[in-house]
Amino acid sequence: MAGRWQRLYRGESTIDFYGRRRFGFFFSAALLLVAVVSLFAQGLNLGIDFKGGVAWEAPVSGQLTIESAKVILEDAGIDETSAKFQLLSSAADQRLRIQAGEQTEAVQKDVQDRLAAKAGSGEDSVSVATVSSTWGRSITNKAIRALLVFMLFVSIFISWRFEWGMALSAIAAMVHDVGISVGVYSVLRLEVTPATVVAFLTILGFSLYDTIVVFDKVHENSARFSGSRVSSGDVINVSMNQVLMRSLNTSIAAVLPVFSLLVLGSGVFGAVALREFALALLVGLSTGAYSSIFIASPLLGLLKNRDPRYRPYRSHLSTGPEMAHLMATGAPASRRGAFVTAVSDTEASPEVAAAVAESVLSHPPRPRKRVRR
Questions:
Q1: Band (344; pLDDT cuts 50, 70, 90)
Q2: Which of 4, 18, 123, 256 is buried most deeply by CB count within 10 Å?
Q3: Share of the chain above pLDDT 70, in %
Q4: How many CB atoms lie within 10 A of CB 333?
């Protein structure tokens, strides 16, 4: 076990990511299917900022509870089944937040007075906020435009810096991440607020960064193996194993602060705005780390199979000792001369040297020819 962790840390692991690409594609397709079905069946739980309406916040004191607040809404002529009730806790006090559809000023004032009387406090202790649905639509349209412009510039940059296949794979991974994140909010009926939209846009940046880290190594290894007879799957596997530990460390370092923000910010200090933002970030960071490994990279390998340089070798895939040989020497295991290079390389670990020896010298010895006298 210690040897495996050491090889993983040194970027010498031999995990066959490309060969197992169908499992990743199937899992992602299943998640996206659930997300699409949920979006069509029940849609998103849009907050008041998108649908428009009224929000009251009152201190939880006296006889004010969620049940008594429902009675107050019914007496004011508001359907309490369509309203949302939420307890906001903090170190100082606890408040009850009630959200309902658009109401007249008279109804707003009536509910405000009833809540204040029930809480046993003054009218000023109950806040009333109204939001028009046009504001939410404006925010949504701006977010969609920003998303499209972002993807356009990202595609142009990646195509210029690397190749068009990497741009297409990166965009597919970002769409995958946002689609699954939105699906999670739809399935779990989590409320979508402007903070959630901002978090979704932030997700794209992390997803792109994690993918570019892998693609940069793929670009480097493509040049390294340019004179060797290797498949695109070999290039993807070698690159993925070399940057796997870096990708995991980056993801863990990004997820831990967000998880702390979610637990401490919303759980301990009762900051609901932090919870909405941190939850979307947590889901997006997790899917972004997953997609860079199981979606973007295998998809790039499939696109590279169309390249004439890789097309003749697309059926070949080095695994296990053969992959270790390829990583250590830069040449397929069939080239026996590369074994001398791998064994004499002082930077190669004993595990890699043993794997190379096993892959190259695994054939039975050739029988000696009889000499005629």
A1: very low
A2: 18
A3: 81
A4: 22
Residue-number span of the structural domain to which 197 is assigned: 17-45+135-304
pLDDT of 198 reads: 77
The rounded radius of gyration (Å) of the Cα atoms in the chain is: 29
Q: In the prediction, which pLDDT does 336 show?
A: 43
Q: Give whichever of 4-8, 26-30, 81-85 has the largest mean pLDDT.
A: 26-30
Q: CATH number, domain at 214?
A: 1.20.1640.10
Of the candidates 258, 247, 257, the residue with the CA atom closest to the CA atom of residue 289: 247
Give the Cα separation of 319 and 325 in Å (integer).
10
Structure confidence at residue 224 (pLDDT):
84
Q: For residue 361, report the phi and psi dihedrals to the nearest 5 degrees.
A: -105, 30
pLDDT computed for residue 40 by the predictor: 92
Three-state DSSP class for residue 95: strand
The C-alpha atoms of residue 1 and residue 333 are separated, in whole angstroms, by 26
**Residue 97 CB partners (closer than 8 Å, separation 6+):** 55, 56, 57, 84, 85, 86, 87, 88, 272
186's CB contacts (< 8 A; 6+ apart) are 35, 38, 39, 42, 43, 44, 45
Choose the final residue of a domain: 131, 149, 181: 131
Whole-structure pTM value: 0.73
pLDDT given for residue 1 in this prediction: 53
Angle at 299 between CA 293 and CA 304, to 5 degrees: 120
Q: How many domains does the chain have?
A: 3
Question: Following DSSP, what letter does each residue of 310-354 receive, concatenated?
Answer: TGGGTT----THHHHHHHHHSS-TT-THHHHHHHH-TTS-HHHHH
Same domain, 124 and 230: no
How far apart CA 349 and CA 135 sit, in angstroms, is 61
